[in-house]
Amino acid sequence: MDRYKHLYTYLMVVMVLVLAGVLAACDSSSPAQPTAVVQPTVGTQPTGTVEVPASPVPTTSNSDASPTSVSVVGVGDPSASFAEGVQAYNSNDYDTAIAAFNKAIEASPEFEAAYVNGGISYYAKGDNETAYAYLAQALALDQEDAFAVWVYGLILYRANVPDQAYEAFDYLIQIRPKDPTGYYWRGYSSIVLGDAESAYSDFEDAARLSPDSDMGKGAAAALEKLNNGEEVVAVEAPLPAMKDAQAPEPPQAGPPTEVPAQPGSLVADLGFRPQKDGFNFPNWGAAPDRVDMTPDDMRRMFGDQVCASITNGCNLTAAAEAWMKEVNQVIQGGHCEGFAALSLIFYQGKQNPSQYGAAGTFDLNIEGNTALQRELAYYWTTQLTPPTRSNRVARKPSEILDVLINVYKDGPNAAETYALEFFQPGFKAGHAVTPYGVEDRGNGQFAILLYDNNHPGIERAMLIDRNAETWQYEAATNPNEQSDLYQGDASTGTLMLTPTSVRLGQQVCTFCENPGGGTVGGSTLAAPDAAQATEYNQLWLEGEAHLLITDKEGRRTGFVDNQFVNEIPGVEIAPITSSNLWADSPEPVYFVPVGIEFTLVVHNSDSPDPTNSSVSMIGPGYVLSVDDVVLDPGQLDTITFSPDGKSISYKTDYNESPDIFLGTAIGDAEYAFLVKGMDIESGGTMTINLDPENGWLALDTLGNKEEGTYALIMVRTDAQSEQVFGHGGITLQPEDVAYVLYGEWKGNGTPLPIGIDHNNDGTIDDTIELTDVRE
Hints:
Layout: H1 8-19, E1 36-37, E2 51-52, H2 78-90, H3 94-107, H4 112-125, H5 128-141, H6 146-158, H7 162-175, H8 180-193, H9 196-209, H10 214-227, E3 265-269, H11 274-277, H12 295-302, E4 307-309, E5 315-316, H13 318-330, H14 336-347, H15 370-381, H16 388-391, E6 393-394, H17 397-408, E7 418-424, E8 428-440, E9 445-451, E10 459-465, E11 470-474, E12 485-489, E13 495-499, E14 536-542, E15 546-551, E16 556-560, E17 563-566, E18 572-574, E19 589-593, E20 598-603, E21 611-619, E22 622-631, E23 636-641, E24 647-651, E25 659-666, E26 669-676, E27 685-691, E28 696-702, E29 708-717, E30 722-732, E31 737-740, E32 752-757, E33 766-770
Antiparallel strand pairs: 1-2, 3-8, 4-5, 6-13, 7-8, 7-13, 8-9, 9-10, 10-11, 11-12, 14-19, 14-21, 15-16, 15-20, 16-17, 18-19, 20-23, 21-22, 22-25, 23-24, 24-27, 25-26, 26-29, 27-28, 28-31, 29-30, 31-32, 32-33
C-alpha cells in the first residue's frame, strides 16, 4: 500500500503552493499556510470573492471529504451564466467567458463545471497560475472528474513542468484505465523528461486501446519513430473544448443550516496534527534520484561490526552488504514506516527538523534533501531489527485502544508514542501510519485519529468496534475501491503497535558474527541489550513467488494454498510495511534461529504468468543466495541452506540457469563467490559447499546428463585491500565436482587452481589453473 499512486492529495498540495505564487510546487520548502484568493482578471471579477482553501484539511477530524470552496451565496441563474460563458469561449472571447463563469460560481458556489471552464478560459489566455487554481478547486469538489484531471495535466505540461504533468496523467490512468488519453499524454510527458522507454510503453497502450482514433494513430506514429531510432518531438498541448455540465441547485437564501456535530468526544489526544507535525510531501516508492540506506547508515545502526574495514570509510561485510541490498530493494515499495516514526521523533523533540532544512516538520522539503531521505529510510529499516522488531506487538482492537488512551491521555507529555501498522490477510499490503488521538463515538464505537503519510495534511481515522473486536480503515482516496478497504478482528493479528523509543538506540545486528557486540564507531547511540542478541538466519525473497519453510519434523512456516501458517517453534516473521494499493506486498522476512535445519520451497502459486525471483539467506557473518529463479505457474523448486551458512543445494524439476552467491568471513578476510549460469536440467540438483578449514569451495550439478560451462567471480577483502578474480569457462562433465582452491590463490592477476573429481568419489583426479580473464 504504500506506493503513492492516487494523485488527489498531490493535486491539493500543488494547489496550496501555486496559490502562494510558487509554480514549481514540489521544489518549495515553505508552502503557504493562510487562505489564498484567486483574483480573476480585472474587469471580470464577480461580485463576491472566490476563495480557494490553502489547505486540504477538512474541518472535522473524522472526515475525508473535500473542503467547501466558496464563501459567498450568490444570486442569478447559474445555468444561464454558464451557457453564456461557453458561447463566449467558443467565440474566442475569453474575458467575457471568465466573467460569465465567475457569475455562475457566484450564484452556485459548488458549480464544479464552472470552475473547470473558468480554468480552461484562463488557460486559453496564457494565465497558467490562475488556471491552476480553478482546476484545483474543481478537483476539490470532484476528485474523480477525469476531464478536469486531463486539463490540469495539460496546464502542467504546457507550463513545462513535465514531472508533475506525468503525475497528473498517471492519476488519470488510475481513474480511467481503459481510456487512451492518460497513456498518450503520460507518454509525451516521459518524452519531455527524456524517458523514451516509459514513453514507449504508454504509446503502446494508447495505440492498443484506441487504434482508429487520432490519439491512437498519433501514438502508433510515435512508436514507429522510436522503433526506427528516430527522435520523437513533444507535441503541443491542445486547447480543450468546454465541459458540458448541469449546474447544481444554488443555495437558498436565509440563515445558514446548522451542521450536526459528530457524536462522541476525544478521550485521548497527543496534540500531534498532520497539517503541522506531519510531512507536506507524500510517501514515495521507487525514485532513482533519491537515496536510501548507505554503508554509513548501516554503521550508525549497528556499529563497526558491519564493516569489513574502516580504513577508507565503512567497507561492508558480505552479509551486511547483502542485507542492505535487500532492505533497499524492498523499500522501493514505499517509506511509510519511516514517515510514521520520524514524524513522532520530531514531534517529541528527540531530533530537530532544523537539521534537515526547516524549523518545522511540515515545512521540510524532500527534493534534493539526501539527509532527510536517508533518515526516513533509516527509521523504515528499524522495523526489521531488534529491539524495534521484537517490540512490535499484534493486539486485539480493544487492546490497541486501551494502549493509546492510557498513554495519549497525557497529551504532549505522553511517555511513549507509537506507529500503527496494519495488513491485509496473509500480511499483505502492509502500511504504517501515525496515531495521535482516540475519539469515543458511543455504543462501543471508536475512531483512532491518524496521520496517513499517503495523504499529507489530512486528518484520517481508523474505525474500531470494541464490542465486536473489529477494525477497518479505508486506505485509498476513493472509498469505492473495495480492494483498498482494510479490516480485521481479534483473530487476524494484522493490527500492530510499535513504540518509538526502541528505535532511538543502536539496533541489534542479527546477521553479524557477534550480534550483541561490536563498537559503535562514531555514533552516539546506546549499545543494544545483549538479551536481544539471538542469532537468526534471515530468509528474503524478491519477486512474486512465495516461500514455505519445513523443518525436520515436518512443521511449516510460510504460505500453504495461499494461506499463511507458522508451525515451527522459534521462527519469527517480519511483515513489511512497504507495498502499495495497486500491487501485492513483498514476502515477509523470515527469522529462523541458527541451528534449525530446514528445507525451503519457492513456489509460484498466485501468478498466471512465469515469475522471476531471488532467494537469500543472511546469517551471522554469511550470505547465500539463488538469483534468477524462473517459475512457471504452479512450479515449485527446493532450496536447502545449511544452518551454518556453508552450503546451498538447489533442486528443480525444470531446466534452470540460476546465479549462485555465497559470501562469508573466513579468518581476517571476507570472501564472496558468484557462480553464473549454473545449468540445472530437469530433476537435477546443484550444490555449492564451502570448506573453510581446507580452503576450497566445491560445486557440482549432479543429475545433469550433459556438460555445462559456468563463470566464476571471486572477491577477497581484508583490512588492506580488495582482490578480485574472474573466469568464464569452467566446464563440468556429468557427475563432476569442481573444487575451487581459493586458499591457494595468490591475489590479483594470478591463476586460481581448480581440482576436478570426475566420479564424485571424494578424490581429485585433475588440477587445472584458471587465468584471470576479467576485462
